[in-house]
Amino acid sequence: MLNTEYSPLLETFRFTGGTELKNRVVMAPMTNFSSHEDGSVSRPEIDYYIRRSQGAGMVITACVYVSRGGKGFPGEFGADHDGLIPGLRELAEAIKGQGAKAVLQIFHGGRQCPPAQLPDGQTVSASAVPSELQGGGQGQVPRALTDEEITAIIADFGEATRRAIEAGFDGVEIHGANGYLLQQFFSPHSNLREDRWGGDVQKRLSFPLAVLRTVKEAVKQYAKGPFLVGYRFSPEEPETPGITMAETFTLVDALTEEGLDYLHVSLMELWSLPRRGTEDSRPRIEQLVDRVSGKVPVIGVGSLYTAADALKALGSGISLVALGRPLLIDPDWVQKVAEGRADDIETRLDTSAQAELVIPDPLWNALIHTPGWLPLKP
After folding, report:
1. Which of 48, 49, 65, 180 is catalytic?
2. How far does Cα 372 stand from its chain's mean position?
3. I want to staple 105 with a disulfide (CB 3.0 to 4.6 A). Which of 22, 29, 33, 162 is the partner?
4. Which residue in 262, 251, 250, 247 sits closest to 295, CA to CA?
5. What angle do CA 181, 118, 89 make, to 5 degrees?
6. Rounded CA gap, 367 and 193, in Å?
7. Could you read off the pLDDT of 43-101 as tens digits, one per residue?
8. 124 bridge partner residues
9. Environment class of residue 239 by beta-carbon count within 10 Å: exposed (0-12), middle (13-18) or buried (19+)?
10. Strand, coil or helix: 219
11. Sign of CA dihedral 121, 125, 128, 133
12. pLDDT tens column, 257-308
């Protein structure tokens, strides 16, 4: 029997454009390393999504590259040519067949791409500034994109959106977070350009806004019904210079003014505190919700393992709660809440339960061998 304490998590949610979700829980986008080498979707990948689409109101897929030169991971699937549409359609139908809305996350990795995954082995970015690697050191020095190449990548985002529409997805999420290409253009750390794509904060907004406009134009041209357009962003960067909360407020204002269906705040810990750029000491998520002022829905994510965690997150003013790692650990998370069994939700990965959890081998190996990324059962 449903514990009414958690009933807000199970309330329906309706976007302004008309798309309705059966509850307030979203599966967050997570790379699974399990697609075919040619960028097509694999059967284990589809089964993995089916297992997690029965409870969530909306599933945001792992990111797909919109340009072959933007492939960010081994085993990443793509949306860079029409030959991939059949596999994308199969994935969309698999997710929607379980009762969830299906959103395709579209991206370009920029300087974060592993050179081995690129046709010419050369990363690209806004400027020739390498990324800082975890554990120290720097990545490959990227080649600064030309104006013509930038324009082509923007068009690629529009074409990937068209393919998502043709494949039957309910929306796309533009991946502007986690240090990938859109963030690289917005960041004063990685964008040292002095042309129309760089300079002050307003000029550094040019590329993200151009991508958003192109995506929206594709929706206007090709979608025959409601189709979501979301944008995911990271509030701050650790580097100096780097994106601050003050600059993120400028980004949020600009995105909201352009018009979109939701904003998705990428955080490892939802309640993390700001570094700089604001005198307000409250958690970032609370400040961002205040900044948006209800103009668009905000999705929050970050270490929300229990139903109590998720309920507290809704109390911060966000519209939807995204679960990533919690749904890897317990695909039945939402069902347990609905059945009044919230106390039975697993919060540590059972390392003997790969088959039951339906996690493909490449992702399973990454989970098991990445210390600290997931809490494991002792």
Report:
1. 180
2. 21
3. 29
4. 262
5. 75
6. 38
7. 999 999 999 999 999 999 999 999 999 999 999 999 999 999 999 999 999 999 999 99
8. 143
9. middle
10. helix
11. negative
12. 999 999 999 999 999 999 999 999 999 999 999 999 999 999 999 999 999 9
CA distances to 5, 44, 175, 341 from 302, rounded to whole Å, are: 21, 26, 16, 22
CA–chain centroid gap for 276, Å, is 24
Separation of alpha carbons 317 and 322, rounded Å:
14
Sign of CA dihedral 150, 263, 301, 162: negative
Here the tokens at position 340 are 């009044």
SS3 for 6?
A: helix
- For the domain spanning 4-368, the CATH number is 3.20.20.70
Residue 293, token pair as written in the block:
């002022």
Nearest-CA neighbor of 14 among 54, 58, 55? 58
What residues have CB less than 8 Å from 352, skipping those under 6 apart?
A: none
Is 231 in the active site? no
Residue 353 neighbours by CB distance under 10 Å:
13
